[in-house]
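lol ok so funny story. i was supposed to be doing the assay writeup but got distracted and ended up predicting the structure for this chain instead. priorities right. anyway since i did it might as well share w the group, maybe its usefull for someone
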Amino acid sequence: MERMYVSTRDADERVTASEAILKGLANDGGLFVPTEIPALDIPWDELAKMSYQETAYEVMRRFLTDFTEEELKHCIASAYDDKFDTAEIAPLVDADGAYYLELFHGATIAFKDMALSILPYLLTTAAKKNQVKNEIVILTATSGDTGKAALAGFADVEGTKIIVFYPKNGVSPIQEKQMVTQKGANTFVVGIHGNFDEAQTGVKKMFSDRELAAQMDAAGFQFSSANSINIGRLVPQIVYYVYAYAKLYANGVIAKDEKINVVVPTGNFGNILAAFYAKNMGVPIDRLICASNENKVLYDFFSTGIYDKNRQFMLTSSPSMDILVSSNLERLIYRIAGDDAEKNAKLMRELATDGRYEITAEMREKLDAFYGNYASEEETAQVIRELYEKTGYIIDPHTAVAAGVYTKYREETGDAETKTVIASTASPFKFTRSVMNAIDPKYGSMEDFALVDELSRIGNVEVPQAIEEIRNAKVLHDTVCEVEEMPDVVRSFLKI
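and the output, tada:
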């Protein structure tokens, strides 16, 4: 049976999986969602024996039904190969009573690699399927990790160009260096004078700019997205939650069908939404623990039912979560609204005009699987230091936010028995200064790459290739613009 996708804002816009991946965003600005979430109807005894690649095929074929077996297996094999520095792709590490799902073993040492390694293959396959003659222009805003992972995925991929906008002073020095040193004739990186939400809003406006679309079409181009608003990003993320559960069962950590909790450091809501979809497929997940940093708009939403972005934007040590407009939350709102596109569209209009909306009591009842909390900057640093002192295991600030919130969850609910997976979303090497300062302030005077070497020494972990290759790399991208200049920058790069 072919699985169709609809817009969260217009029930009449129905497309196939490959069309949804190609478009990225629906015509009305809505996000594509499957008309129903498929059941994961494979016994856990079988899943427990599968490799990451085999698990990916079983999950993805249930969502991307217009891809042939050959096409999908080619995309998976091309993505999850020796770009990852471990054969497991996503290993689990037992530390201090939780299981850290390490999602940072790909080319850019962040969890975005898990989906962005495969998206270029899904996208180019989708383009062939739909007889697309235009060159695909990937247009993306990043809060730090998506940008580099997308650049690495799409660099020199035939038939594509990629343009990444990032907040000039809103990413870590390592994140920025990873992006501005990116090679590839089809890559373009731009810093904006503004924050991530402004970059993301600017990108969304360009997607719905019909005049720009017409100019691009005339020049042989069309936009698609590598942001987590693209369903081709979301579906691959479901895989690692299925894989993590299967591995816990295979290793005898849990009994068959025993429920687990999942903790996710959350910004744009895509990663935890993937866990929600996994739960709805039948993975025995009990609580979905949504961890925020000091930009705690999601914590407030789960506490009150009111989403309100009218607040101060905080720059923190976990910049990929410095977000006040969590785009993927719209997919959850659509679902708890009973798949009512009209009701969802009304709430999204309120968010656009007033910066806030409130869900009904009936909708709130459907969020009982979620628990939200946040960790302050001081708490985040304390978690990094204490986990290192207790176990020798070093985590990055985003993962530390999740670990801190998990501690609060246990204290508040008394639930210390349920086995828990914490999504570890980035290598500590991506945020060396924050990590090392948290462990001991004496490291404050050291320069960035000296800190890298010291982290390697005290953590007894090899420096990742992704860091080694930028140590002496030349800056290739130095364009900076104002938010309102973003469309002109795109036109200039495409020479239209």
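The longest strand covers residues 160-167. The chain is about 45% helix and 15% strand.
back to the writeup now i swear
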